[in-house]
Amino acid sequence: MALALSSPYGCPSDEEEEMAVFESTAAEHRGLARPRLPEMSVISPVLDTWTTITQPTLAVKSGLVRKGSNGEGNNEKVKVYLRIRPLCEVEREREEEQGCVAVQDEETLLLKAPKESQNMRTAERGITQSMHKFSFTKIFGPKSTQQQLYESTMKEMVKDVLQGENRLLYTYGVTNSGKTYTIQGSGREAGLLPRALASLFRKLQGRLYDAVDLKPVMYQDVRQLQPSEVRAEEIRRNSLLKEDENLSSRRGGTTTVWDSGLSSMSDVVTQLEDTDSVCLEPDSLSHSGGHDLEEGVQFSIWVSFYEIYNEFLYDLLDASPSLQPRKRVTLRLSDDKQGNPYVKDLTWIQVRSAEEAWKIVRAGHRNQSFASTHFNQNSSRSHSVFSVRILHVRPEAGSDQTIHTSELTVCDLAGSERCKDQRNGERMKEANNINTSLLTLGRCIAALRHNQSNRSRPPQVVPFRDSKLTRVLQGFFCGRGTSSMVVNINPCASIYDETLQALKFSAIATQLVHGPSSKTRVAYILSLLREQKTENENGSMVVEEEEEDESDVEDGDITMLNTEALLQAIDVLKREVQRQREEKEVLEASVREQVVSEMMEVISRMQEGFSETLEAERALIEERYEEKIANLQKHLKKFYSQELKERDQEIEALSAALEKKEAESITLSAPQAECEGPRRSQRLSTQTKHGRVNTELDQCRAELLTKTQELKKLKMELEVSGSTGNFTGAAERKLEEGQRNLRQLCLDLQRLRLDLQSGERACCRITGGEKLRQAIVAAHDTLLKQDQILMELRNSLMLVKADLRRKEETLAKTEAMQAQLPPSGFAASTISSSCKKRGCGAAAGNDTENRPPVKRPFFQSLFPIHTPTRKYNTRAAEESNMTPSLQILRSRQPSPPPSPVSTPRILRGKY
Ligand SMILES: Nc1ncnc2c1ncn2[C@@H]1O[C@H](COP(=O)(O)OP(=O)(O)OP(=O)(O)O)[C@@H](O)[C@H]1O
Hints:
Layout: H1 14-28, E1 40-43, E2 79-84, H2 89-93, E3 101-103, E4 108-112, H3 118-124, E5 131-135, E6 138-140, H4 146-152, H5 154-162, E7 166-173, H6 179-184, E8 185-186, E9 189-190, H7 192-203, E10 214-217, E11 221-224, H8 227-251, H9 265-271, H10 274-277, H11 282-286, E12 298-309, E13 312-315, E14 330-331, E15 333-335, E16 341-343, E17 349-351, H12 354-367, E18 370-371, E19 379-380, E20 383-393, E21 404-412, H13 425-453, H14 468-477, E22 482-489, H15 496-510, H16 517-535, H17 541-548, H18 550-553, H19 563-668, H20 670-720, H21 725-763, H22 770-820, H23 825-838, H24 840-844, H25 855-862, H26 868-880, H27 884-892, H28 902-910
Parallel strand pairs: 1-5, 2-6, 2-22, 7-21, 7-22
Antiparallel strand pairs: 3-4, 4-5, 8-9, 10-11, 12-13, 12-17, 12-20, 13-14, 15-16, 18-19, 20-21
Helix pairs in contact: 5-7, 7-9, 7-12, 8-12, 13-14, 13-15, 16-19, 20-21, 20-22, 21-22, 22-23, 22-25
């Protein structure tokens, strides 16, 4: 076969071509054993078993049934075209041309992995093939023109749409592969869309329905507009057209990035070749066989333009184009009563010429999301969907008319790309969303293909709902119309792996057959009915009828079955459902059993593993801690032995120094030595004395404590008791005893102090006697505290004494009054008690002896050292005014001890 379209980018060698032929043949002879991995994968649309499928009926409005016109589309495969874009200068300089893309013939493409590609690396490891062969409806090489492409793809579609069909054309490919160029064109190279618009309006010359009172809504409905709504529609339309004119005049005809250099429609019209103008004559339209337009029908053309950006739908014909993308209103997808999806609140604009339509495209294009990426300076970051909806109107039929609609949708998909190539976060997010929606499209197509090639099996769920893109295109895959795909590839070696993926996806699409998914279900039902028939030995009338109608039902039209057959079908289906349910229950039970046993195994393995790990961990930890303990022991031993050694050395040094000193003192002065002997013994005796003193001090302290307690008790008794006779005696006795004790204590203290002083004198001479000195200071502090306590005790005693004195006076007075008054016990006691109560006893005498005890002596007693003279004077004065009994008491009181403060002063002065 002549390779009219063979690529200039490296033709495969003879050897390779031979290999390709061989592999292709091997692929066709399925079932042959393949001893080795094929060096080439062959993906071609081979669907021999699916030849009986018919073209679906056209989706209709108001029950108007229109079968596929001219039988076209019946058992037809989905058309997939391939377009290879030429390399640009920069790419040539980068040596991107490595012969990896080769066109074998009009339908076959051969891909050969370049050295640096991932595919080649995996092929070298024997995982995949390095050569791939693909078949397409038609391949357009780098030199093909826009017109050639239009002729083969869009031209026929435009005719079909005018006949009432729905058609979809979408471009698919890696980013920067020429999708937008194919759809819209560039400069004077108008793309498929402007050509289609120009062709459409030329065909409809004189057949346009200019009124705006009918508008397409929802999935495929038409609504009659009120006059006010008509006005609103006109305003919207005019504003969009005016806006485009204003922008064009402001730019002075120059192109900018956002309009991609689109040419004006007049250029496009001149580019349309004569072949297309054959259809322009109304006569030729009506007499051109299957391509004639219906008599008396006028056509109202409406267009819409929206994009799917990051899984959000945006109206590109929104009246406020100046709004920022993030502020744009998102459109919602809804379902009509039959469950058909449609874009809610989408703007539809009526257009009356190709120029107007093109202006609307340009206005929408300005709102579209483009960005500069790693690969493409002006990359589409969204899937854009441009729809032309045609209302087939019969104006003579008035309000009774049934309006038919047909639609031509052109979808420019965003390019698939590797996310890692994107350095910008926003671009990466876009790439993610683009890839996800394209992947979903691929999954939908794969599921559709599976359902078509496995008719007798239950159909797979087609995941249309998984992305917005597949949801809006769902109708075209499920019987609403037919779709065609243009796969764009870029022959650059650096993006070979991405190109291969895109081609693999498109290869699946080439195996698709137009047809609604419901057809598969019908075929499935019919197969069940056939099975039922063979099972049914008697063979009912219904089955016979069904056999008669088999030719019809093979077409998938279940409505051709009669009621009985349908009822039987329902029964069969019910039984099938039951059977499948039971089958699934059994399957579920066995799966559960398997899962449980596997889980048990896994758990036991995990348990074993855990216990082993635990044991190992324990052993390890034990070992580690044993090591640590041993280390610690070693270090402690070392440390303490070191310490001991140091101390021994110190002791040795000290004893040596002592001995040396002793020896020195002995040799230097003999008389001195004589004196030293007793001194040393004195020192030793002082130390023993010091210990003794301490114990004595403790004893004294304890004794003092008990005495204090006794005194307190006594005082309380004195306060509580009303009678003074026996109590005074007892108190005197106690006081005497206390004073004796005190005296003894004072003496003891005196002695102790002297001992201490002598001890201090002895100790302070000893070299290194710091410790002893500190002990003495502490003992001295203790003594001071004892003194303090003694002082307090003395003060307390003074107070007790004063109280006793007062009581004695009162007693004496009472006695005196009793002696003076007549012997009336009642009066005497009354006076006595009243005097006592008022304190008359204290006020009666004006001598000092009778004065009540005041706080002054107490304070004075607190500071004996500062006011000794005054104290003793006061004491003398007191003694002079004392009662005999008090004088006796006072005489027993010991002389004031030496000032407790003076001793520490002296001691401290020493150190
Ligand atoms: N057949 C062709 N002939 C000449 N130039 C082409 C052809 N196809 C594409 N180009 C050029 O290649 C570049 C990329 O094309 P285009 O923007 O259409 O790619 P794309 O696939 O739409 O990219 P993206 O997915 O990133 O939007 C453009 O400069 C375009 O003019």
